[in-house]
Amino acid sequence: MTREQHPGDPIAIFEAAFQEARAREPFEANAMVLSTVKEGRPRSRVVLLKAVDARGFQFHTNYESDKGREIEASPFVALNFHWPKGEEQVRAEGPIEKLSTEESDAYFATRPRKSRIGAWASDQSRPLATREAFEARVAEVEQRFEGVDVPRPPNWGGYLVRPLRIEHWYGQENRLHDRFVYVRDRVDAPWSMTRLFP
Per DSSP, which regions of 142-186 are E strands? Predict the structure, then answer.
């Protein structure tokens, strides 16, 4: 792949690659590794991308979870997508912010009812004595919202990662891979692209 074959908007490139990956990959193509920092040490976990647009990448979680507290303390994260069947990888880094209440409400309303119940019942990342204790909390929440819609908990919602750096990696034979990195110095600035050695 040449520089001329690689267009200038890395988010648009991602969107096209993501649609191809969703049709090709056997598991969840929207799975991404989210890395945060706690007291100077990196921490990573897999979360699910729920939307992507010109602004960046969106996911949802409990704001009081470990990752939520880490984001609050250090609002800059890294993402990594890996699509092995297509031999593609995308890395993104940038500041992170909460989505609007309206956007979080709209997404929460699309979740299955049991998942919405679970969002209320779980003190995500906190110690849990037994599975039975959690199931009892789920039953309590189900009873509380019996016969009515389950609203979004106030401590649960979406995040938007607004990338300042995106790398597209393409596997090639003999590990002679293609790598293109796009950078900008602020979220409303144009992108510049550089090809990297593999």
Answer: 156-161, 165-170, 178-183
pLDDT tens digits for range 43-77: 999 999 999 999 999 999 999 999 999 999 999 99
62 shares its domain with 101: yes
Do 41 and 133 belong to one domain?
no
pTM over 0.90: yes
Closest listed residue to residue 65, CA positions, set 2, 155, 178, 133: 155
The total of structural domains in the chain comes to 2
Asked whether 51 and 106 are in contact (CB, 8 A), the reply is no
Q: Note whether 65 and 125 are within 8 A (CB).
A: yes
Domain that holds residue 187: 3-109+152-196
Nearest-CA neighbor of 46 among 33, 36, 27? 33
As beta bridge partners, residue 112 has none
Pair 82, 59 in one domain: yes
Q: Which tokens in the block code for residue 103? A: 């956007």
Cα–Cα distance measured from residue 157 to residue 194, given in angstroms and rounded to the nearest whole number: 35
Do 23 and 79 fall into the same domain? Answer: yes
